[in-house]
């Protein structure tokens, strides 16, 4: 199993975060806080599921104060529960939402790249992750 001490885990999470932040449009909340990929994931999952257990878990953690921290916790939760590919795929289904959140250079806006990314993430479902959540 992959654990918190794994160098590959840190590289994987950094690459995932890079993909999710690449060409992300700058958006602000009502109170002026900058939105991040966490907000994109919450919005995308809310469209298709009433309550995603990963979102509920992350929002229950009082220590997480920033969207980036919540996004990182969500990625870890999804890796442990083998839900990353499915969760991200749900967020990527709506082309209007993608255009609302991402500029044209985002790999998520290219159907071929999006399929390649999701295919790779589905391959991670056979990997066991034992991470501290």
TrEMBL record:
Primary location group: cytoplasm
Domain RUN, first and last residues per copy: 3-133
Domain of life: Eukaryota
UniProt xrefs under SUPFAM superfamilies: RUN domain-like (SSF140741)
GO molecular function term, any single one: zinc ion binding
GO biological process terms held by the UniProt record: autophagy; cellular response to interleukin-4; plus-end-directed vesicle transport along microtubule; positive regulation of autophagosome maturation; positive regulation of transport; vacuole organization
Pfam families: RUN
Chain segments annotated as transmembrane: none
The keyword Zinc-finger is annotated on this UniProt entry: yes
Intracellular or extracellular location(s): Cytoplasmic vesicle, Autophagosome; Lysosome
Alphabetical UniProt keywords: Autophagy, Coiled coil, Cytoplasmic vesicle, Lysosome, Metal-binding, Zinc, Zinc-finger
Gene Ontology CC terms, in alphabetical order: autophagosome; late endosome; lysosome
PANTHER family named in the record: FYVE AND COILED-COIL DOMAIN-CONTAINING PROTEIN 1, RUN AND FYVE DOMAIN CONTAINING 4
Purpose of the protein: ARL8 effector that promotes the coupling of endolysosomes to dynein-dynactin for retrograde transport along microtubules. Acts by binding both GTP-bound ARL8 and dynein-dynactin. In nonneuronal cells, promotes concentration of endolysosomes in the juxtanuclear area. In hippocampal neurons, drives retrograde transport of endolysosomes from the axon to the soma. Positive regulator of macroautophagy in dendritic cells. Increases autophagic flux, probably by stimulating both autophagosome formation and facilitating tethering with lysosomes.
Designated name of the protein: RUN and FYVE domain-containing protein 4
Organism: Malurus elegans
Gene: Rufy4_0
